[in-house]
Design goal:
Radius of gyration of chain A: 13 Å
Number of strands of chain A: 11
Oligomer: heterodimer
Largest sheet of chain A: 7 strands, mixed
Chain lengths: 111, 112
């Protein structure tokens, strides 16, 4: 029972570099989403997807791209990292109208 | 504009007593509310939920109360235990919107 798997666990980037945060779930959930957690800001929704081929913006989408080519995977891309993107990133999935299952997070530092 | 507000960043409660965590929301289209618990270095885990057709939902030591007219919900933990020390997030969604919006969280400390 892997659940929601996020890789890597930790990452350090220099400003301007690009990278992809991976997220995979093995529960056949239609719904997947990405959140970032910052001190004093709680969990803020970046992007979400209600199924393969469908994505939409959340509260803080700028600087991030997503795609959903399969039900299982929902990668989050940073095209040009900025220090403001230093955060802990959580991927989550669920059946529609059911509680989210979260991964254990990716801690990203941008210097 | 914050749609889900948890105005208490932290709360300390004696072990065995009741912990009450509060949450307010502004979007009247929200009709499903959830509480999540988060330990350090882990992802949030689902605790309990309530839909707008109810005003109370209970699961063991955890009870969530919803006051729709006041746009307010609360989580009661009775009795509080040391393992309850964590950050608690309130979240909400609407039936015509797939976004699930979280509050800033409340850090609960259970004192021995």
């Amino acid at each position: 029972n892997a659940g929601v798997t996020q890789t890597p666990k930790f990452q350090v980037l220099k400003t301007g570099q690009s990278m992809t945060l991976q997220c995979a779930q093995d529960m056949n959930h239609e719904y997947m989403s990405w959140y970032r957690q910052d001190p004093g800001m709680g969990l803020r929704l970046i992007h979400y997807s209600v199924g393969a081929g469908i994505t939409d913006q959340g509260e803080v989408p700028n600087g991030y791209n997503v795609s959903r080519s399969t039900t299982e995977d929902f990668p989050l891309r940073l095209l040009s990292a900025a220090p403001s993107q230093t955060s802990v990133y959580f991927c989550a999935s669920s059946y529609r109208e059911s509680p989210l299952h979260f991964g254990n997070g990716t801690r990203l530092t941008v210097t | 504009d914050q749609q889900v507000k948890q105005n208490s960043p932290s709360l300390s409660v004696q072990e065995g007593r009741i912990s009450i965590l509060n949450c307010d929301y502004t979007n009247s289209m929200f009709d499903y509310f959830l509480w999540y618990k988060k330990y350090p270095a882990e992802g949030p885990t689902f605790l309990i939920s309530i839909s707008s057709i109810k005003d109370k939902n209970e699961d063991g030591r955890f009870t969530v109360f919803l006051n729709k007219s006041a746009k307010h919900l609360s989580l009661h933990i009775v009795p509080s235990q040391p393992g309850d020390s964590a950050v608690y997030f309130c979240a909400a969604s609407g039936n015509r919107d797939d976004k699930i919006i979280f509050g800033k969280g409340t850090r609960l400390h259970i004192l021995p």
